[in-house]
Amino acid sequence: MAEWEPRIIVIACHWCTYQGADLAGSLRYSYPPSIHIVRVPCSGRVEPEFITEAIKSGADGVFVGGCHFGDCHYRSGNYNTIKRFNLLKRALVDLGLEDERVKLEWISGSEGKKFAEEMTVFDAKIRELGPNPIKGGANV
Amino acid sequence: MSKPKLAYYLAGGCGGCDIAVVDLSETLVDVALAVDIVFWAPTVADAKYKDLEAMPDGSIDVGLITGNVRNSEHDHIVKVMRKKCKVLIAYGICATSGGIKSLVNLYTTEQLLDKAYVDTMSTDNPDKVIPQTSCIVDSKYDLTLPALFDAKPLDQVVSVDYYIGGCPPHYDHVKTAFTALLTGQLPPPGSWITSGKALCEVCGRNPVLTGKPKKFTTTIKRTFEGTPTEGACLLEEGYLCLGPITQGDCGVKCPNANMPCRGCGGPIPGVKDFGTRAISAIASMLEKEELVDEIPDPVHLFYRYTLAGSALGKKLNR
Amino acid sequence: MQTIEINPMTRLEGHGKIKIFLDDKGNVDNAFMQVVEFMGYEKFLKGMPIEEVPRTVCTICGV
Lengths: 140, 318, 63
Hints:
B: Rossmann fold, 6-stranded parallel sheet, 12 helices, globular, C: 14% helix
């Protein structure tokens, strides 16, 4: 069997985290190839269903990126995001998913370096955790 | 024209949905006269599985199945029902989404059996005997039991034509559904038989219906803490009510009795994963993010009726 | 050994079956009643807030 490579879904808000990813590219910062970015208009658009669907479909990690508080292009989107995300995370942990497999972080458009660093750290964490348990890994 | 033939099978359910049919009272007479009940087991009619297996394929017009699919016997009869019935309806929340009984997916079968047969205070079982799929008693009596597995909603086993939610469905809703069936006024196959309205849309406590603004939830209360204000929205008062995403075909019985909705009606149209959408809706209504940590036991609250039908469907790493 | 199986037992909630074993003369040798249903409420209610339990356990039997 081929060696396992993680697949990580990053759901990035158009106005901040996606611009941060853009900047990381322009500044030639490298981040792992396991990262697959999905752009959404606002982190407030991220339904908890997007995250569970990604996990169900076999994503090894899900990272949600949005604007810092006060920076939201739509004023209050990220305040909704953190409430939904934290509640979903509590439910997912109770459903046996590892705490670190889903993560929410605020990365602004000027934080290209932070984006690359966060991706590297998240990728390392997922490699440490191993494949998504839903894929038929251990103890399913 | 001969009467339409009806078959009804209770899989891993409690029989409450059968009682909901009986609750039709006078209408039940009309329904009973209009259809020919060929199979209704195990609750109402004296029918055996081998009689059902002997019927020609496609000979039954409408088949209703309640309860989730929990063991090999359910799995077998449900597949037989699919072959014999032209239209198959998942009736009640267990058949549509898994129901309360699908909370068994939080544990392995071994853990559940161990708790029930060995580990409880009141159990006297020194030899730790638990049920087996087959056993031979006195070396000559050969007995079998169905094999247990994780609970599944009906549509994970066979294709389902229509869904009816509720735990159990309200008898008025059952009446509407039966009328639709008998007159042939059915929605497109694969859809829920529902009014399509959320519970909040028909709830007298909803402030929006009287032109007032909806306020954020500022505290989290458990149902024994205080009494809700007469006519006030339970969510505004701090009682976590799942009305915003639940079908309102139930006649708003729980909120009218000061009890918050727990989502037995099933998801409103367009929602696939009820529990996750409920998390989204309830979290958005909280005033501060700190309130999230005060919600007790989110899995038993949001996935109470729909764990097996949710995206994860079971507990991982259990 | 000849057997008669009554499956399911009807006009009740919950699934059961009866297996009757006959001897060579056709008389009943032994009979077993089996309950084929298992739920597991004892375990999965663990962790649920106590005030929610009454409205949850009423689905053990709906009749």
